[in-house]
Amino acid sequence: MDVVLIEDEAVAADxxxxxLARYDPGxxxxxxxxxxxxxxxxxxxxxxxxxxxxxxxxxxxxxxxIFPKVSIHCPIIFTTAYDQYALQAFQVTSIDYLLKPIAYxxxxxxxxxxxxxxxxxxxxxxxxxxxxxxxxHQFQKPYKTRFLARCNxxxxxxxxxxxxxxxxxxxxxxxxxxxxxxxxxxxxxxxLETLLDPSQFFRLNRKxxxxxxxxKDIRTHSGSRLRVLLQPAPFTEVIISRERVAExxxxxxx
Length: 254
What we know:
Radius of gyration: 22 Å
CATH superfamily of the largest domain: Response regulator
Number of domains: 2
Keywords: Phosphoprotein
Domain HTH LytTR-type: 160-254
InterPro entries: CheY-like_superfamily (IPR011006), LytR-like (IPR046947), LytTR_DNA-bd_dom (IPR007492), Sig_transdc_resp-reg_receiver (IPR001789)
Organism: Hymenobacter gelipurpurascens
GO molecular function, one term: phosphorelay response regulator activity
C-alpha cells in the first residue's frame, strides 16, 4: 500500500512512519508533505496513492484549503489535535480520524477499517468537506502575534517571535525580548495565557510565562522539581513545581 503523509511537524511525521511500518512493513510512504501548497502541487502531478494521512492544521493553513484546488481520489484519514467537540463533525462523514498524540491501537483500528471499506470506498463529497471546514475554522483560535510594549517614554510593538518571556514583578508585567531588552505590557500573566499560542508559550510558575525559543537547558532540582535555564537569563532562578513538571514535559514533547 502506497501512502502520502501530509504533516507539518517532523516529529509527528516520523512517528506516523514508524507506526505504519509496525502495522505492515510493506506499506510505502511515497511522499511526505507539510503544507497546503505542496499538497496541491503533488496531487496535481501524481497518481493517487492508496491512502492519504492528512493533518488538519498545516504550515500554511487548514487542510480543507486543498480540496477546492485539487481532487484527492483516495481514502483519507485525518489527524488532528482538536478536542472531542470539534471531532463530532466527523460523524457526518465516512472519513476516519486520529486524535494526536497518535497511539498505535488507534492507527491499527483506522487501517483495519480502511481494509474493510476498500471495495466500497467513495471519496468524501464536496458538501461533507465544506461542513468539516466550517467547523474547524470555527474552532481555530486567533492567537496574538504582537504586543505593544513600553520602555520609558517609548512605545514599540514586539512580535511573538521576538519574545523570550513575560515576567511578573509585583504589580507590573514585563516583556523580555530575545535581545535581552525589557518592556512593560498592560496585561496580567493570566490574560497572556489565554492570548498566546499554547504550543509556543508555557506558564512555568507564578512569575514566568516563557517562549519555547527561550528554553535553553533543564536540570533536576530538589523535591522532584525542575530548574529551567532561560536565554536571556532572568534575574531570579526559575523553578517548576513538582505539580507542573509533567505538564511542562508534555509541552516540550508536543
